[in-house]
Amino acid sequence: MRMYDVIEKKRDGKELSYDEISYFINNYCNDLIPDYQVAALLMAIFLNGMSERETADLTEIMANSGDVIDLSAIDGIKVDKHSTGGVGDKTTLVVGPIVAACGVPVAKMSGRGLGHTGGTIDKLESIPGLKTALSKEEFIENVNRIGISVAGQTGNLAPADKKIYALRDVTATVNSIPLIASSIMSKKIACGADRIVLDVKTGSGAFMKTLEKSEELARCMVKIGNNLGKKTVAIVTDMDIPLGNAIGNSLEVIEAIDTLKGNGPKDLEEVSLCLAAKMLELAGIGDESYCKQRAREVLENGQALEKFAQMIERQGGIPDVIEDYDLFKKPRHMYEFTSEQDCCIEKIRTDMLGISSMILGAGRETKESAIDYSAGIKLYKKTGMSVKKGELIATLYSDDTEKINQALETLKKSLVLGDSVEPQRPLILSYVE
């Protein structure tokens, strides 16, 4: 088999066989195929697409290119939840404890943030003492003991995806539905869950900006999961507005704790309960109505909050943070951004708001960037709200005053101010099953 023939076949719009995809992936991972030939194939895929079968094969082969986590030592049906990324998206911190409190094991591996989107692992590591680098044995023991553990992804999880993504990033081939879907799902398949719930974000703060493209991505990923024997469903949720009011690591953890106490933002609570109920339904504990009722029950009676406290303690953190937020690292500087006029917030460029938080130190511009766990934004006014002159819109937090000045300019550009309020679309936009 020659790489030249594989490129030519896909260039001409033909389907690649399992063996041809395997040849390309395995030899590229072993440095036996040069970047320029893989770049040519990626462009051919970008232009001609892939069939449902090809996309499932690509996903499976990439998933098997490194570690595949075996969760069989954990009793029960393991349901994973994955978000395609957004701004203020701390749902895992709420959903995981709810599902675990309902008796369904949550064995979740999460990633770090990059660019305008935050990462669950960075958020958890803002809790003093908490560690996310767990051995496989620690990870499984935690789930068997208390029903939940959230850990960082292993260094060798789907390495083929990492290598191919780096090449896609510099060859203008990132925005291909089959390549995006296989990239996401290869890691989910390698993580070993029995069922998968996908939270596909759409809007200005999401990877996919339009509902049409988000639903296309959701359908593709659901088909991949089902074709590979993992019952998969997707929920398309709005990311034209940040989820909740906090953007930044410790700020988001505090907001998640508030939500587990029943005092959090209603949009975060709504999306979290929806995702939790779908995970419970996939785990087979009841129909949709019962699962929604059960999820709300453990949220309201404090069992989900207790489960989060147990997870913090099991992973070396200080559970007292749940009652004493002063235990989190405090920023050296803060700035209150107030309105200069009476107006309405007509729209928010959510991606720019995420970039503003990144500038403050809450996110990474590159993988090597350092994180300031205390940095971020607390947003008091969101899309569709009226604002009086002198009223507080947002507070910015950072250890660096110069970063606050830079972030403030980006934050101002993210807000579209006007005289009228337009109706907002629902948070839950569609289901793909």
UniProtKB/TrEMBL annotation:
It catalyses: 2'-deoxyuridine + phosphate = 2-deoxy-alpha-D-ribose 1-phosphate + uracil; uridine + phosphate = alpha-D-ribose 1-phosphate + uracil; thymidine + phosphate = 2-deoxy-alpha-D-ribose 1-phosphate + thymine. It holds the Pfam family PYNP_C. Its EC number is 2.4.2.2. It comes from the Bacteria. NCBIfam families: PRK05820.1, PRK06078.1, Y_phosphoryl. Catalyzes phosphorolysis of the pyrimidine nucleosides uridine, thymidine and 2'-deoxyuridine with the formation of the corresponding pyrimidine base and ribose-1-phosphate. PANTHER family: THYMIDINE PHOSPHORYLASE. Homodimer. This is Pyrimidine-nucleoside phosphorylase. It comes from Acetivibrio clariflavus (strain DSM 19732 / NBRC 101661 / EBR45).
